[in-house]
Amino acid sequence: MSDYSFFGAVGKSFDKAAQFTQWDPGILEQIKQCNAVYRMHFPVKIGDKVEVIKAYRVQHSHHKLPCKGGIRFAMSVNLDEVMALAALMTYKCAIVNVPFAGAKGGITIDPKKYTPYELEKITRRYTSELIKKNFIGPGIDVPAPDYGTGEREMAWIVDTYTSMKPGEIDGLGCVTGKPVTQGGVRGRREATGLGVFYGLREVCNMKDTMDKLGMPVGVEGKKIVVQGLGNVGYHSAKFFQEHGAIIVGLAEYEGSIYNNDGLDVDQVFEHRKKTGSILNFSGATNFAKNTDALEMECDILIPAALENVINGENAPRIKAKIIGEAANGPLTPEADEILIKKGVLVVPDMYLNAGGVTVSYFEWLKNLSHVRYGRMEKRFTENLNTHILGQIEGLTGKKVDTKEKEFIMHGPDEVDLVRSGLEETMITATREIMDAWKANPKIPDMRTAAYVVAINKVGTSYAELGIFP
Protein backbone atom coordinates (compact mmCIF):
# COMPACT_ATOMS: atom_id res chain seq x y z
CA MET A 1 0.00 0.00 0.00
CA SER A 2 3.03 2.33 0.32
CA ASP A 3 2.70 3.56 -3.29
CA TYR A 4 -1.02 4.36 -2.84
CA SER A 5 -1.78 8.05 -3.34
CA PHE A 6 -5.08 9.32 -1.97
CA PHE A 7 -4.86 12.43 -4.19
CA GLY A 8 -4.11 10.09 -7.11
CA ALA A 9 -7.23 8.04 -6.27
CA VAL A 10 -9.37 11.20 -6.28
CA GLY A 11 -7.78 12.08 -9.66
CA LYS A 12 -8.67 8.62 -11.01
CA SER A 13 -12.32 9.06 -10.00
CA PHE A 14 -12.26 12.56 -11.55
CA ASP A 15 -10.84 11.28 -14.88
CA LYS A 16 -13.40 8.48 -14.97
CA ALA A 17 -16.20 11.06 -14.72
CA ALA A 18 -14.59 13.77 -16.90
CA GLN A 19 -15.20 11.71 -20.08
CA PHE A 20 -18.96 12.07 -19.49
CA THR A 21 -18.69 15.89 -19.54
CA GLN A 22 -18.22 18.36 -22.41
CA TRP A 23 -15.52 20.59 -20.87
CA ASP A 24 -12.31 21.64 -22.60
CA PRO A 25 -9.33 19.52 -21.36
CA GLY A 26 -7.66 22.70 -20.05
CA ILE A 27 -10.65 23.56 -17.86
CA LEU A 28 -10.74 19.98 -16.57
CA GLU A 29 -7.03 20.21 -15.71
CA GLN A 30 -7.62 23.48 -13.83
CA ILE A 31 -10.52 22.00 -11.84
CA LYS A 32 -8.40 18.96 -10.93
CA GLN A 33 -5.29 20.74 -9.62
CA CYS A 34 -4.71 22.24 -6.16
CA ASN A 35 -4.43 26.03 -6.60
CA ALA A 36 -2.45 26.86 -3.45
CA VAL A 37 -0.46 24.63 -1.11
CA TYR A 38 0.98 26.02 2.12
CA ARG A 39 3.38 23.76 4.00
CA MET A 40 4.81 25.12 7.24
CA HIS A 41 7.12 24.25 10.12
CA PHE A 42 6.93 26.26 13.33
CA PRO A 43 8.48 25.92 16.81
CA VAL A 44 6.36 25.44 19.93
CA LYS A 45 7.72 25.03 23.47
CA ILE A 46 6.44 21.72 24.86
CA GLY A 47 7.54 21.14 28.47
CA ASP A 48 11.16 22.31 28.59
CA LYS A 49 11.89 21.40 24.95
CA VAL A 50 11.22 23.19 21.69
CA GLU A 51 9.31 21.02 19.23
CA VAL A 52 9.12 21.76 15.51
CA ILE A 53 5.56 21.18 14.33
CA LYS A 54 4.75 20.29 10.72
CA ALA A 55 1.45 21.57 9.34
CA TYR A 56 -0.44 22.22 6.09
CA ARG A 57 -3.26 24.22 4.54
CA VAL A 58 -4.30 23.49 0.96
CA GLN A 59 -6.74 25.59 -1.06
CA HIS A 60 -7.84 23.34 -3.90
CA SER A 61 -9.95 25.80 -5.88
CA HIS A 62 -10.75 29.51 -6.07
CA HIS A 63 -13.80 29.32 -8.36
CA LYS A 64 -15.77 30.64 -5.39
CA LEU A 65 -14.62 32.28 -2.15
CA PRO A 66 -14.21 31.63 0.71
CA CYS A 67 -12.52 28.25 0.60
CA LYS A 68 -13.80 25.76 3.19
CA GLY A 69 -12.44 22.65 4.85
CA GLY A 70 -11.58 21.00 8.14
CA ILE A 71 -8.34 20.82 10.12
CA ARG A 72 -7.04 17.39 11.13
CA PHE A 73 -4.74 16.59 14.05
CA ALA A 74 -3.23 13.14 13.38
CA MET A 75 0.12 11.46 12.83
CA SER A 76 -1.12 10.29 9.42
CA VAL A 77 -1.49 13.88 8.15
CA ASN A 78 0.68 14.42 5.07
CA LEU A 79 0.56 16.57 1.96
CA ASP A 80 -1.03 13.87 -0.22
CA GLU A 81 -3.92 13.36 2.22
CA VAL A 82 -4.54 17.10 2.71
CA MET A 83 -4.54 17.72 -1.06
CA ALA A 84 -6.99 14.85 -1.64
CA LEU A 85 -9.36 16.00 1.10
CA ALA A 86 -9.22 19.60 -0.21
CA ALA A 87 -10.17 18.37 -3.71
CA LEU A 88 -13.06 16.31 -2.29
CA MET A 89 -14.27 19.44 -0.48
CA THR A 90 -14.52 21.36 -3.77
CA TYR A 91 -16.66 18.62 -5.34
CA LYS A 92 -18.68 18.12 -2.16
CA CYS A 93 -19.61 21.83 -1.85
CA ALA A 94 -20.56 21.94 -5.55
CA ILE A 95 -22.84 18.89 -5.28
CA VAL A 96 -24.74 20.16 -2.23
CA ASN A 97 -24.93 23.74 -3.60
CA VAL A 98 -22.90 25.33 -0.83
CA PRO A 99 -21.10 28.40 -2.28
CA PHE A 100 -17.58 27.55 -1.11
CA ALA A 101 -14.48 26.18 -2.82
CA GLY A 102 -12.56 23.29 -1.25
CA ALA A 103 -9.69 23.54 1.23
CA LYS A 104 -8.21 21.36 3.96
CA GLY A 105 -5.70 21.69 6.76
CA GLY A 106 -3.78 19.41 9.02
CA ILE A 107 -1.13 19.25 11.74
CA THR A 108 1.05 16.15 11.94
CA ILE A 109 0.76 15.39 15.67
CA ASP A 110 -0.85 12.80 17.92
CA PRO A 111 -3.23 15.01 19.95
CA LYS A 112 -3.41 12.36 22.72
CA LYS A 113 0.26 13.01 23.55
CA TYR A 114 -0.24 16.66 24.49
CA THR A 115 -1.94 18.43 27.37
CA PRO A 116 -4.85 20.75 26.52
CA TYR A 117 -2.54 23.71 27.23
CA GLU A 118 0.07 22.41 24.76
CA LEU A 119 -2.60 21.74 22.13
CA GLU A 120 -3.86 25.28 22.61
CA LYS A 121 -0.35 26.67 22.01
CA ILE A 122 0.01 24.57 18.82
CA THR A 123 -3.47 25.56 17.54
CA ARG A 124 -2.99 29.26 18.21
CA ARG A 125 0.46 29.26 16.58
CA TYR A 126 -0.94 27.45 13.53
CA THR A 127 -3.72 30.06 13.30
CA SER A 128 -1.25 32.96 13.45
CA GLU A 129 0.78 31.32 10.65
CA LEU A 130 -2.39 31.14 8.53
CA ILE A 131 -3.22 34.80 9.28
CA LYS A 132 0.32 35.89 8.25
CA LYS A 133 -0.11 34.34 4.80
CA ASN A 134 -3.77 35.39 4.41
CA PHE A 135 -4.89 31.74 4.49
CA ILE A 136 -7.80 32.32 6.89
CA GLY A 137 -10.70 34.80 7.08
CA PRO A 138 -14.50 34.90 6.67
CA GLY A 139 -14.16 35.86 2.99
CA ILE A 140 -10.91 33.97 2.27
CA ASP A 141 -10.71 30.54 3.88
CA VAL A 142 -12.92 29.18 6.66
CA PRO A 143 -11.62 26.08 8.53
CA ALA A 144 -13.74 23.65 10.57
CA PRO A 145 -13.23 20.61 12.84
CA ASP A 146 -12.14 17.27 11.41
CA TYR A 147 -10.50 14.12 12.71
CA GLY A 148 -8.76 14.91 16.05
CA THR A 149 -10.28 18.41 16.48
CA GLY A 150 -13.55 19.80 17.78
CA GLU A 151 -15.35 22.81 19.23
CA ARG A 152 -12.53 23.55 21.67
CA GLU A 153 -9.90 23.96 18.93
CA MET A 154 -12.28 26.09 16.85
CA ALA A 155 -12.80 28.40 19.87
CA TRP A 156 -9.00 28.86 20.12
CA ILE A 157 -8.81 29.63 16.40
CA VAL A 158 -11.60 32.25 16.49
CA ASP A 159 -10.10 33.87 19.59
CA THR A 160 -6.63 34.09 17.99
CA TYR A 161 -8.12 35.47 14.77
CA THR A 162 -10.32 38.12 16.42
CA SER A 163 -7.49 39.26 18.72
CA MET A 164 -5.11 39.66 15.76
CA LYS A 165 -7.78 41.39 13.64
CA PRO A 166 -9.60 43.60 16.17
CA GLY A 167 -12.78 45.28 14.99
CA GLU A 168 -13.36 42.96 12.05
CA ILE A 169 -17.13 42.83 12.31
CA ASP A 170 -17.52 39.41 10.65
CA GLY A 171 -14.51 37.91 12.48
CA LEU A 172 -16.59 35.09 14.03
CA GLY A 173 -17.13 33.76 10.49
CA CYS A 174 -13.41 32.89 10.13
CA VAL A 175 -14.06 29.32 11.32
CA THR A 176 -17.09 27.05 11.84
CA GLY A 177 -17.85 24.21 14.24
CA LYS A 178 -17.46 26.62 17.17
CA PRO A 179 -19.21 26.23 20.54
CA VAL A 180 -22.70 27.78 20.43
CA THR A 181 -21.61 30.42 22.98
CA GLN A 182 -18.84 31.55 20.58
CA GLY A 183 -21.07 31.97 17.52
CA GLY A 184 -21.60 28.29 16.73
CA VAL A 185 -24.91 26.93 15.47
CA ARG A 186 -27.18 24.39 17.17
CA GLY A 187 -27.29 21.09 15.28
CA ARG A 188 -23.67 21.25 14.04
CA ARG A 189 -22.44 18.35 16.20
CA GLU A 190 -24.78 15.71 14.75
CA ALA A 191 -24.89 17.30 11.28
CA THR A 192 -22.66 14.85 9.37
CA GLY A 193 -24.34 11.76 10.82
CA LEU A 194 -27.79 13.21 10.19
CA GLY A 195 -26.79 14.08 6.62
CA VAL A 196 -25.68 10.46 6.09
CA PHE A 197 -29.09 9.34 7.32
CA TYR A 198 -31.04 11.78 5.11
CA GLY A 199 -28.99 10.84 2.02
CA LEU A 200 -29.35 7.08 2.49
CA ARG A 201 -33.03 7.42 3.42
CA GLU A 202 -33.67 9.26 0.13
CA VAL A 203 -31.87 6.47 -1.81
CA CYS A 204 -33.96 3.86 0.07
CA ASN A 205 -37.14 5.77 -0.86
CA MET A 206 -36.40 5.50 -4.61
CA LYS A 207 -38.49 2.60 -5.83
CA ASP A 208 -36.58 1.94 -9.08
CA THR A 209 -33.23 1.87 -7.21
CA MET A 210 -34.59 -0.48 -4.53
CA ASP A 211 -36.17 -2.76 -7.16
CA LYS A 212 -32.77 -3.12 -8.88
CA LEU A 213 -31.22 -4.15 -5.55
CA GLY A 214 -34.13 -6.48 -4.74
CA MET A 215 -35.01 -4.59 -1.56
CA PRO A 216 -38.21 -3.07 -0.19
CA VAL A 217 -38.61 0.73 -0.17
CA GLY A 218 -37.80 2.69 3.02
CA VAL A 219 -35.30 2.34 5.89
CA GLU A 220 -37.58 0.50 8.31
CA GLY A 221 -36.39 -3.03 9.07
CA LYS A 222 -33.15 -2.63 7.08
CA LYS A 223 -30.14 -4.34 8.71
CA ILE A 224 -27.23 -1.97 9.20
CA VAL A 225 -23.56 -2.31 10.10
CA VAL A 226 -21.62 0.79 11.19
CA GLN A 227 -17.83 0.93 11.35
CA GLY A 228 -16.57 3.70 13.65
CA LEU A 229 -18.43 4.98 16.71
CA GLY A 230 -17.03 8.51 16.58
CA ASN A 231 -19.24 11.53 16.09
CA VAL A 232 -20.34 10.58 12.55
CA GLY A 233 -20.79 6.83 13.07
CA TYR A 234 -22.61 7.24 16.37
CA HIS A 235 -25.12 9.78 15.02
CA SER A 236 -25.67 7.86 11.75
CA ALA A 237 -26.43 4.69 13.72
CA LYS A 238 -28.65 6.57 16.18
CA PHE A 239 -30.81 8.24 13.49
CA PHE A 240 -31.23 4.93 11.63
CA GLN A 241 -32.23 3.20 14.86
CA GLU A 242 -34.75 5.96 15.68
CA HIS A 243 -36.36 5.46 12.26
CA GLY A 244 -36.88 1.72 12.60
CA ALA A 245 -33.71 0.23 11.09
CA ILE A 246 -31.87 -2.57 12.93
CA ILE A 247 -28.22 -2.02 13.85
CA VAL A 248 -26.81 -5.58 13.58
CA GLY A 249 -23.07 -4.86 13.78
CA LEU A 250 -20.74 -2.19 15.20
CA ALA A 251 -16.98 -1.96 14.71
CA GLU A 252 -14.30 0.14 16.39
CA TYR A 253 -10.50 -0.08 16.28
CA GLU A 254 -10.43 -2.26 19.43
CA GLY A 255 -12.80 -4.84 17.93
CA SER A 256 -16.29 -5.44 16.57
CA ILE A 257 -19.55 -6.99 17.78
CA TYR A 258 -22.80 -8.24 16.26
CA ASN A 259 -26.31 -9.30 17.15
CA ASN A 260 -28.72 -10.16 14.31
CA ASP A 261 -31.69 -9.06 16.42
CA GLY A 262 -30.17 -5.61 16.83
CA LEU A 263 -27.88 -3.63 19.13
CA ASP A 264 -28.91 -0.55 21.10
CA VAL A 265 -26.42 2.12 19.99
CA ASP A 266 -26.67 4.20 23.17
CA GLN A 267 -26.16 1.16 25.41
CA VAL A 268 -23.09 0.10 23.41
CA PHE A 269 -21.79 3.67 23.62
CA GLU A 270 -22.25 3.69 27.42
CA HIS A 271 -20.59 0.25 27.70
CA ARG A 272 -17.62 1.60 25.76
CA LYS A 273 -17.39 4.65 28.03
CA LYS A 274 -17.31 2.42 31.11
CA THR A 275 -14.98 -0.34 29.86
CA GLY A 276 -12.97 1.46 27.17
CA SER A 277 -14.11 -1.08 24.56
CA ILE A 278 -17.24 -2.14 22.67
CA LEU A 279 -16.22 -5.81 23.12
CA ASN A 280 -18.06 -8.13 25.55
CA PHE A 281 -21.28 -6.09 25.33
CA SER A 282 -24.05 -8.20 26.89
CA GLY A 283 -26.27 -9.83 24.29
CA ALA A 284 -23.71 -9.35 21.51
CA THR A 285 -21.07 -11.67 20.06
CA ASN A 286 -17.47 -10.52 19.53
CA PHE A 287 -15.95 -10.94 16.07
CA ALA A 288 -12.48 -12.49 15.85
CA LYS A 289 -11.10 -9.42 13.99
CA ASN A 290 -12.46 -5.89 14.00
CA THR A 291 -12.59 -5.90 10.16
CA ASP A 292 -14.93 -8.93 10.16
CA ALA A 293 -17.90 -6.63 10.75
CA LEU A 294 -17.39 -5.13 7.27
CA GLU A 295 -18.00 -8.56 5.75
CA MET A 296 -21.13 -9.61 7.64
CA GLU A 297 -24.59 -10.08 6.12
CA CYS A 298 -26.49 -6.76 6.09
CA ASP A 299 -28.49 -4.42 3.87
CA ILE A 300 -26.45 -1.25 4.42
CA LEU A 301 -22.80 -0.95 5.46
CA ILE A 302 -21.68 2.44 6.76
CA PRO A 303 -17.89 2.87 7.03
CA ALA A 304 -17.54 5.97 9.25
CA ALA A 305 -13.87 5.79 10.28
CA LEU A 306 -10.76 6.35 8.15
CA GLU A 307 -9.86 5.96 4.47
CA ASN A 308 -9.07 2.74 2.52
CA VAL A 309 -10.85 0.28 4.85
CA ILE A 310 -12.47 -1.47 1.86
CA ASN A 311 -9.87 -2.33 -0.78
CA GLY A 312 -9.16 -4.82 -3.56
CA GLU A 313 -8.40 -7.53 -0.99
CA ASN A 314 -11.61 -7.53 1.09
CA ALA A 315 -14.13 -6.06 -1.41
CA PRO A 316 -15.02 -9.50 -2.89
CA ARG A 317 -16.21 -10.62 0.58
CA ILE A 318 -18.54 -7.65 1.21
CA LYS A 319 -22.16 -8.84 1.52
CA ALA A 320 -23.95 -5.48 1.93
CA LYS A 321 -26.23 -4.35 -0.92
CA ILE A 322 -25.65 -0.65 -0.20
CA ILE A 323 -22.48 0.99 1.13
CA GLY A 324 -22.91 4.51 2.55
CA GLU A 325 -19.53 6.21 2.70
CA ALA A 326 -19.77 8.28 5.87
CA ALA A 327 -15.96 8.59 6.15
CA ASN A 328 -13.73 10.30 3.57
CA GLY A 329 -12.39 7.84 1.01
CA PRO A 330 -13.20 4.53 2.78
CA LEU A 331 -13.12 2.64 -0.56
CA THR A 332 -10.13 2.40 -2.89
CA PRO A 333 -10.68 2.62 -6.70
CA GLU A 334 -9.97 -1.17 -6.87
CA ALA A 335 -12.79 -1.81 -4.38
CA ASP A 336 -15.12 0.36 -6.48
CA GLU A 337 -14.50 -1.74 -9.60
CA ILE A 338 -15.13 -5.02 -7.75
CA LEU A 339 -18.33 -3.73 -6.10
CA ILE A 340 -19.75 -2.36 -9.40
CA LYS A 341 -19.40 -5.89 -10.87
CA LYS A 342 -21.17 -7.34 -7.81
CA GLY A 343 -24.05 -4.89 -8.25
CA VAL A 344 -23.46 -3.17 -4.89
CA LEU A 345 -24.67 0.44 -4.74
CA VAL A 346 -21.94 2.67 -3.29
CA VAL A 347 -23.36 6.00 -2.10
CA PRO A 348 -20.26 8.22 -2.33
CA ASP A 349 -18.58 10.12 0.50
CA MET A 350 -18.18 13.37 -1.39
CA TYR A 351 -21.84 14.15 -1.04
CA LEU A 352 -23.08 11.72 1.63
CA ASN A 353 -20.94 13.19 4.40
CA ALA A 354 -21.61 16.78 3.32
CA GLY A 355 -23.89 17.37 6.34
CA GLY A 356 -20.98 18.90 8.22
CA VAL A 357 -20.11 21.45 5.55
CA THR A 358 -23.79 22.22 4.90
CA VAL A 359 -24.40 23.12 8.55
CA SER A 360 -21.04 24.92 8.63
CA TYR A 361 -22.43 27.05 5.81
CA PHE A 362 -25.51 27.81 7.95
CA GLU A 363 -23.20 28.73 10.85
CA TRP A 364 -21.15 31.04 8.60
CA LEU A 365 -24.36 32.74 7.38
CA LYS A 366 -25.46 33.14 11.01
CA ASN A 367 -22.11 34.81 11.82
CA LEU A 368 -22.42 37.19 8.86
CA SER A 369 -26.05 38.07 9.67
CA HIS A 370 -25.35 38.43 13.44
CA VAL A 371 -28.73 36.93 14.38
CA ARG A 372 -29.76 33.50 15.64
CA TYR A 373 -31.99 31.39 13.38
CA GLY A 374 -35.61 31.46 14.51
CA ARG A 375 -35.27 34.63 16.57
CA MET A 376 -37.34 36.70 14.17
CA GLU A 377 -40.12 34.23 13.33
CA LYS A 378 -40.48 31.68 16.17
CA ARG A 379 -43.11 33.56 18.23
CA PHE A 380 -44.94 34.82 15.16
CA THR A 381 -45.32 31.25 13.84
CA GLU A 382 -46.45 29.97 17.28
CA ASN A 383 -49.03 32.73 17.67
CA LEU A 384 -50.35 32.19 14.14
CA ASN A 385 -50.59 28.39 14.54
CA THR A 386 -52.31 28.78 17.92
CA HIS A 387 -54.85 31.14 16.33
CA ILE A 388 -55.51 28.76 13.39
CA LEU A 389 -55.99 25.82 15.79
CA GLY A 390 -58.36 27.88 17.93
CA GLN A 391 -60.42 28.73 14.85
CA ILE A 392 -60.58 25.07 13.72
CA GLU A 393 -61.61 23.88 17.19
CA GLY A 394 -64.22 26.65 17.40
CA LEU A 395 -65.70 25.86 13.97
CA THR A 396 -65.75 22.07 14.38
CA GLY A 397 -66.59 21.95 18.07
CA LYS A 398 -63.89 19.26 18.47
CA LYS A 399 -60.67 19.36 20.46
CA VAL A 400 -57.30 18.48 18.88
CA ASP A 401 -55.28 15.84 20.77
CA THR A 402 -52.83 17.55 23.22
CA LYS A 403 -49.72 15.97 21.71
CA GLU A 404 -50.78 16.91 18.17
CA LYS A 405 -51.68 20.38 19.39
CA GLU A 406 -48.18 20.92 20.80
CA PHE A 407 -46.61 19.72 17.54
CA ILE A 408 -48.74 22.03 15.36
CA MET A 409 -48.28 25.07 17.61
CA HIS A 410 -44.50 24.73 17.90
CA GLY A 411 -42.56 27.55 16.23
CA PRO A 412 -39.15 26.57 14.79
CA ASP A 413 -36.05 26.77 17.00
CA GLU A 414 -32.58 27.16 15.51
CA VAL A 415 -32.00 23.39 15.55
CA ASP A 416 -35.33 22.74 13.74
CA LEU A 417 -34.40 25.17 10.96
CA VAL A 418 -30.86 23.82 10.66
CA ARG A 419 -32.10 20.23 10.36
CA SER A 420 -34.80 21.21 7.90
CA GLY A 421 -32.20 23.02 5.74
CA LEU A 422 -29.93 19.97 5.90
CA GLU A 423 -32.78 17.62 4.94
CA GLU A 424 -33.64 19.80 1.94
CA THR A 425 -29.95 19.92 0.89
CA MET A 426 -29.40 16.14 1.07
CA ILE A 427 -32.67 15.25 -0.71
CA THR A 428 -31.98 17.72 -3.55
CA ALA A 429 -28.36 16.52 -3.96
CA THR A 430 -29.39 12.83 -4.01
CA ARG A 431 -31.98 13.51 -6.71
CA GLU A 432 -29.55 15.58 -8.80
CA ILE A 433 -26.98 12.76 -8.78
CA MET A 434 -29.57 10.08 -9.57
CA ASP A 435 -31.00 12.20 -12.42
CA ALA A 436 -27.50 12.68 -13.91
CA TRP A 437 -26.95 8.91 -13.69
CA LYS A 438 -30.29 8.13 -15.36
CA ALA A 439 -29.62 10.72 -18.08
CA ASN A 440 -26.48 8.85 -19.15
CA PRO A 441 -26.77 5.04 -18.82
CA LYS A 442 -23.05 4.73 -19.68
CA ILE A 443 -22.07 6.20 -16.30
CA PRO A 444 -20.99 3.08 -14.37
CA ASP A 445 -21.77 4.04 -10.75
CA MET A 446 -23.14 6.64 -8.39
CA ARG A 447 -19.68 8.02 -7.50
CA THR A 448 -18.98 8.81 -11.16
CA ALA A 449 -22.43 10.40 -11.46
CA ALA A 450 -21.65 12.57 -8.40
CA TYR A 451 -18.34 13.65 -9.95
CA VAL A 452 -20.11 14.50 -13.21
CA VAL A 453 -22.52 16.77 -11.29
CA ALA A 454 -19.61 18.40 -9.42
CA ILE A 455 -17.40 18.90 -12.51
CA ASN A 456 -20.29 20.48 -14.43
CA LYS A 457 -21.02 22.94 -11.61
CA VAL A 458 -17.38 23.94 -11.05
CA GLY A 459 -16.77 24.13 -14.81
CA THR A 460 -19.80 26.38 -15.23
CA SER A 461 -18.47 28.64 -12.46
CA TYR A 462 -15.07 28.96 -14.16
CA ALA A 463 -16.69 29.56 -17.57
CA GLU A 464 -19.06 32.21 -16.21
CA LEU A 465 -16.21 33.99 -14.42
CA GLY A 466 -14.57 34.34 -17.84
CA ILE A 467 -11.28 33.14 -16.33
CA PHE A 468 -10.20 31.53 -19.57
CA PRO A 469 -9.17 34.00 -22.28
Class from helix and strand fractions: alpha/beta
Low-pLDDT runs of 5+ residues are none
Largest sheet: 7 strands, mixed
Average pLDDT across residues? 92
The helical percent reads 40-55%
**Total count of helical runs of at least 4 residues:** 16
Encode the helix/strand succession as letters.
HHEEEHEHEHHHEHEEHEEEHEHHHHHH
Arrangement of strands in the largest sheet: 9-8-7-6-10-11-12
Euclidean distance between termini CA atoms: 42 Å
Number of E-type strands: 12
Strand content: 5-15%
How would you describe the shape?
A: globular
Please tell me how large the radius of gyration is. 23 Å
Question: In words, what does this structure look like?
Answer:
The protein is globular, with a radius of gyration of 23 Å. It is an alpha/beta fold. It has helices at 6-18, 25-32, 79-95, 116-132, 151-164, 191-204, 207-213, 231-242, 265-275, 333-342, 349-352, 355-369, 378-396, 402-409, 414-439, 446-465, and strands at 36-46, 49-59, 67-73, 101-107, 141-145, 223-227, 246-252, 255-258, 285-286, 300-303, 322-324, 345-347. Helix 6 crosses helix 8, helix 6 packs across helix 12 and helix 6 packs across helix 15. 46% of the residues lie in helices and 15% in strands.
